[in-house]
């Protein structure tokens, strides 16, 4: 389980389950996989850190069992440490926590890695990249939120392109981008250095195989 560490310089796509039909999650993921998706972005929301509520470790475990793709859990929750063991147990490949919600970030990242998962930190749109600072040696990837976390279908925040560029100047870690990613915004993010393109509404508003492929190809084209 080393999706991010083995990424090299590839650009890949990941469907965000938030916009999928939760009653048919495995099928929805499979449809995006047919469009070239290589990772599943699993949004966990607690109605405290964000004003929305989604699914937890039990659903993650079912999805892990139902797909060959690695599952990437994004914990948009107030107390990530209390949930991390259950997500490790569920078999997810990677776990990211919001830096704004992590009081003892070093311990949190350590717990994720000790559990055999890759560790990521997610930054809200106005959180400065410098917050990554001393956590960099303990990270496998950085997740840049290009909308305010909580909901799918929001407008892309254009300043996040510069933020991706800045993070790539600071470190060599793969940057995952999430929020308002479409075939129009993906090239901007890839040109700035992003490699993992998470898309929800843009994938599930049509045929997920077609839409996922369109986003991945648009992103890869930006590499020239
Ligand atoms: O985590 C989140 C939102 O908090 C995202 O994963 C959204 O689900 C992305 O949705 P789109 O902006 O692509 O519709």
UniProtKB/TrEMBL annotation:
Active-site residues annotated for this sequence: 43, 178
Top enzyme class: isomerase
Pathway: Carbohydrate degradation
Swiss-Prot/TrEMBL cofactor(s): Fe(2+); Co(2+); Zn(2+); Mn(2+)
GO biological process, one term: pentose catabolic process
Record-level Gene Ontology MF annotations: D-ribulose-phosphate 3-epimerase activity; metal ion binding
Protein name: Ribulose-phosphate 3-epimerase
Binding-site residues for substrate, renumbered to this chain: 16, 74, 150-153, 178-180, 200-201
NCBIfam families: PRK05581.1-4, rpe
Record field: catalytic activity: D-ribulose 5-phosphate = D-xylulose 5-phosphate
Organism, as annotated: Rubrobacter xylanophilus
Binding site for a divalent metal cation: 41, 43, 74, 178
Residue ranges that the Swiss-Prot or TrEMBL entry lists as coiled coil: none
